[in-house]
Amino acid sequence: GQNIDQPTEMTATEGAIVQINCTYQTSGFNGLFWYQQHAGEAPTFLSYNVLDGLEEKGRFSSFLSRSKGYSYLLLKELQMKDSASYLCAVLDSNYQLIWGAGTKLIIKP
Amino acid sequence: DAMVIQNPRYQVTQFGKPVTLSCSQTLNHNVMYWYQQKSSQAPKLLFHYYDKDFNNEADTPDNFQSRRPNTSFCFLDIRSPGLGDAAMYLCATSVEAGGTYNEQFFGPGTRLTVL
Hints:
By secondary structure, chain A is mainly β. Chain A is 0% helix and 57% strand.
């Protein structure tokens, strides 16, 4: 079966750095997405990785290792508004988006 | 601004009473998706339209139907809502062409309550 694993919840301090990991087992791979979802709101796109390596976009970076079936989202200089769920999703060989359950990130002052 | 719009934002229905949720987009995207998301769970794809081609997920209950009368609009019909159908329903769109798949843009969602 297809599976996306990410921690259920993480806590970090304002101004710090946090890394949210995602491991996946899917039938094929056509890219990995990270989305941010605030409580009661729709997911919003953060990043897309299809090649190995690190993609940096402002305070957020996303890393991919296809051989390990592994990705992480790195958030720097955390702000209170970064409190949200972060969803990892993989596009499989049928171009279906397989979603993880999300990691709830709690930021403390 | 180009966007994905869902109406209503909050819908309350009675057990077994049909309900329709609507989604419209001004992005002119050719693919539209309906997801069901329950609290602290991953979004679950119900079906999607690739242009006019309807694609139903194998485990989507027959109770759920969809219509896409034109590029801009898509509807989700729940024929006989049960208590287990209470969830957030998310509409999303994307551009898919020539094997290139882009990120999905989500509407704000409709939170469905079944009494």
